[in-house]
Design goal:
The chain has 20 helices and 16 strands. The protein has about 525 residues and is an alpha/beta fold. The strands form 3 sheets. It has an 8-stranded parallel β-barrel with strand order 7-8-11-12-13-14-15-16, surrounded by 6 helices. A 6-stranded mixed sheet has the order 1-6-4-5-3-2, with helices on one face.
């Protein structure tokens, strides 16, 4: 039997004869040592097969600790006559062995042929990002995404909680962030209001549920750009104390946090204080990309900050902000991640981990950052952005992207932490569209994250997709067919044209008009723009 496992184990051999059939009488030996992993299996059996284990028969599932397993996340799995044996170093390894077993049971309708599997992940960081700033996803929907992550052996949930179009993190100190900033009157050209936010209890439940699946949660509070929703709630955060509303169109906005005011830093630090109380995994994402300097050019507070700090260019304010907030978070014991942005000499210090999305960056710049010792998470927009239409990022392109960026050597290989799939939500308003965008591409990305490069093959992956779809159907998620995921001809062209409509919703003209008005009011400064 060929098991269509995704992600593919590092080593697997199978026979053709059924030697094990799981019935309600199957006994689990070692259940008391590994409650989370066994709970995942029992939940799967109940939901997929309406099967509750009694544990009194001849079939045995052995869960054993073993010194032979080197990786904390690694496992071996053996299927023999009337028994399945999973050996691990830690319970986390059992959990991933169980995820593999679930796929095998689904494929064989609870009957298994003999098999020997040796497995461990290629990368320690295997992430998935969900953008809840553009469109709000309920707590229950987030739980579903976490279950999906576990199935794909992903272990870091990057939760994008704030955007120009919506602030979803409830703050006790700044309640207007969600009272005002979580609501927008409409989206682009429709007339439908949109709102939603997570209470502190909601977020604690998400963290607890994620931990039960061996997933760490990384909250993102995107600053100093992408903050119109915060400015709408608290105008003092802007350069000119302007009264604004939460953004209703997509795209980069000129209105960003004022880096010249101390009150801005008091606000950001206080919010992150609340964030780090809830999210206990010691990692935060501060966004940090796409920060136009147009307002800073005109702002007397920002210009004074430049003079006081001896900054040469307006763009240096960006670095000043990232360095100051980054240090504040590191002093609290946090690991800090930011999106990679344009590289100049004044880029922030190398302790900030870069999430690499901007594939237009010059290779020499990347090599320079590697030499500085900067660590990376790989999330290239043209390969790992799940919201992009299949006409721009088809399944094969997604699978075959090589995350081993140029400039890495055996000596600095440790700087590449891992990879992450990103589901942005500008055009993903609900779970139906989310499923269509995510599957089967998440299977492809998870295989790049888990399966070592030498064991990967797109042709082999393609042959396993039928079995993969069976599992996706079982969890009631929408998906794209292979034909849709690899469009050709008219379908591919139509997909690209459909995506280009986003330009109508980007609000760039509004930026320019507003900026001209402010220039007349405050006078354009003769400073270099970033």
């Amino acid at each position: 039997m060929i098991y269509p496992l995704i992600p593919k184990p590092q080593k697997i051999t199978t026979g053709d004869t059924v030697v094990f059939t799981l019935t309600k009488y199957c006994e689990i030996i070692g259940e008391d040592k590994f409650p989370k992993a066994v709970g995942s299996l029992k939940k799967f059996l109940s939901e997929s097969f309406s099967l509750e284990l009694l544990g009194t028969g001849k079939e045995k599932l052995y869960l054993e600790l073993s010194d032979e397993i080197n990786s904390d996340e690694g496992y071996t799995l053996s299927v023999k006559e009337n028994e399945v044996i999973i050996k691990v170093k830690t319970e986390q390894g059992v959990f991933y062995g169980i995820q593999t077993l679930k796929q095998m049971l689904m494929h064989g309708d609870l009957s298994l042929c003999s098999a020997e599997i040796e497995d461990e992940p290629a990368f320690s960081y295997r992430g998935f990002m969900l953008d809840c700033g553009r469109y709000f996803f309920t707590k229950e929907a987030v739980f579903t995404f976490l279950e999906i992550m576990a199935l794909h052996k992903l272990n870091y949930f990057h939760w994008h909680l704030t955007e120009d179009q919506g602030w979803r993190f409830y703050s006790e100190k700044y309640p207007l962030l969600t009272e005002i900033g979580s609501y927008r009157s409409h989206t682009n050209f429709n007339s439908v209001p949109h709102s939603g936010y997570y209470t502190k209890e909601d977020m604690k439940e998400v963290v607890e549920y994620a931990h039960s699946l061996y997933i760490k949660v990384i909250p993102e509070i995107d600053t100093p750009g992408h903050t119109v929703s915060a400015i709408a709630a608290y105008p003092f955060l802007s350069c000119f104390d302007r009264n604004m509303v939460t953004a209703t169109k997509w795209g980069v906005k000129y209105d960003v946090l004022c880096v010249g005011k101390e009150s801005t830093f008091d606000f950001v630090q206080s919010v992150f204080d609340e964030v780090t109380e809830i999210f206990t995994d010691g990692i935060v994402h501060l966004g940090g990309d796409e920060v136009p300097t147009a307002r800073w050019e005109l702002c007397p507070h920002c210009q004074k900050r430049m003079k006081d700090e001896g900054l040469k260019e307006t763009g240096d304010l960006h670095t000043y902000y990232l360095g100051r907030i980054g240090k504040y978070l590191r002093d609290k014991g946090m690991e800090v991640i930011m999106w990679n942005d344009r590289v100049k000499e004044y880029m922030p210090d190398s302790s900030l981990c870069w999430q690499f999305w901007n594939t237009d960056m010059d290779k020499k710049d990347m090599e320079g950052e590697i030499k500085k010792g900067r660590s990376f998470i790989i999330s290239p927009e043209k390969s790992y952005y799940l919201d992009l239409p299949y006409g721009l990022v088809d399944l094969k392109t997604c699978y075959e992207y090589d995350p081993y960026i140029e400039g890495l050597t055996e000596e600095n290989r440790h700087l590449l932490k891992g990879i992450e799939a990103c589901l942005w939500a500008e055009f993903v308003p609900d779970m139906k569209k989310a499923g269509y965008c995510t599957f089967p591409r998440l299977g492809a990305i998870s295989e790049s994250a888990w399966t070592k490069k030498e064991n990967k093959s797109y042709e082999d992956f393609s042959e396993r997709l039928d079995g993969y779809y069976k599992h996706i159907k079982a969890i009631n998620m929408n998906y794209a067919t292979v034909k849709q995921a690899i469009p050709t001809g008219i379908r591919k062209t139509a997909s690209k044209l459909y995506w280009e409509r986003r330009r109508l919703c980007w609000g760039g003209l509004e930026n320019l008009i507003t900026n001209k008005k402010l220039e007349k009011m405050y006078g354009k400064k003769d400073k270099k723009n970033d």
